[in-house]
Amino acid sequence: MTSAFAARYPAYTGFAAVLSGAGLPIYIYAPKYYADTFGVSLTALGLVLFGLRLFDVVQDPFLGWIAERLRAGKALAVACGAACLGAAMVGLFAVAPPISPLVWFGVTITALFSAFSFLTINFYAQGITKVSGQKDGHVTLAAWRETGALLGICLAAVAPIALMGVAADPFAAFAWGFAAATFVATLLMWKEWTPEPNAQQATSVKEILSDLLARRLLVLALVNATPLAVSSTLFLFFVESRLGAPGWEGPLLVLFFLAAAVSSPVWSILANGYGAKPVLMAAMVLAIAAFGWTLTLGAGDVGAFAVICILSGATIGADLTLLPALFAKRMSYIAPNGGQGFGLWSLVSKFTLAFAAVLLLPVLEMAGFQAGQENPVEALTLLTLLYALVPIVLKLVALGLLATTSLED
What we know:
By secondary structure, this protein is mostly helical. 80% of the residues lie in helices and 0% in strands. It has 15 helices and no strands. The protein has helices at residues 2-6, 9-21, 24-38, 42-69, 74-93, 101-130, 137-162, 170-189, 205-209, 212-242, 249-274, 276-294, 302-334, 339-366, 377-403.
C-alpha cells in the first residue's frame, strides 16, 4: 500500500472518479432531465446524441493524434480540458437555456464530451507510460484507476437524487460540485503528465487497426459495452415505470455501481491468478443470468431487482477493469505513445451509448411510452425486452468473440 501511494496511484483514482462522473451518469440523467424539465422529445435527444457520436468518429482519433504530440505542455493542455469539462457541466445543468433547450443541450453536451474524450485519451495513454516495463503493472494500475472510476460513477449517479432534499436545484448543485471536484483532481494529477520517455514515433490509426488482436479487442469492447449502455439509458424509466418504484432510482443505482466498484479489485486479483480470459468469460455468463432474471420482473419487484443490480454490477467491475488493461497492454507493444489507440477506445466506448440512445428512446416513444405517465401494457413489455433481452443477445455475441480470441500474445 505504501508503494502504491509513493507511486501516486491514488491520484489516478481521483482523476478517474471525476472523468467517470462526466460519462455514464450524464447519459442516465441528461435525456430524462431535458425531457421532464423542458419538454424536449426523447427522439430529438436521441438524434442529437447520435449526431455527436458521428462527430466523434473524426474528433476522437484527431484528439489522439494531438495527445501523442503533447510534450512539455501536456499538464497545461489537460488543465484547459478539465476547465472546459467543468464549465460544460455547469452549462448543461446549472444554466437556464438562453436559446432553444434542444440546441443548448447539443452545444453543452458536445463541449462536455469533447473535453471528456481529450482527458480520457491522455489519461489512459499516461497509464501506459506510468507502468511501462512493470510486471502486471497494467492490471495493478487498472485496479486503482477503475475502482476510482466506478466510485465516481456511484457518486455522480446518486448525487442529484440525494440533493433533492437539500438543494433547491439539485442538478445545479451537482454541476457546481462536479466542477469543484474536477479542479481538485486536476491539481492532484498535475505532476503525472509526463511525455513518453523514449519519444517514440507516433503510431497511426491504420497501424493500430492492422493489428489483429487490437482490432479484436476494440470489437469486443464495442459489443460487450453496449449492454451497459442499453441498461444505463433505460434504467430510470425501468425503475419508475416497469417496477412502479419512483424514488428507488438512486438507491438502486448506488447498489449497481457500488457492486462494480467493490468487485473491481477482486476481478483484478482473479485475473492475475487465473488469467483475464476465463475470468471475463465467467463475468459474462453471470451477466447473462442476471438479465435473464430481469425478464421475469414486474411491478413491485424492487427486492429482486436490487439483487440483480448487485450481480450485474459486479460483472461490470470485470468489464471496466480487465478490458482496458488488456488493451493498454497491447498498446504498450504496438503503440507505446497510446494516444491514437485510446482515441479509438474512447470512440468505441461512447458509440455504444449513442447506439442505445438513438435506437431505444425513439422506439419507446413510438410505442406510446411517456416518462412519468401511465403507460400501456405493450409499452411496458417493450421496455422490459429492450432493457433485458437486448443485452442478453449482445452478451452472448461478446462471449463468442472472447472465446475465439487468443490473448496469449
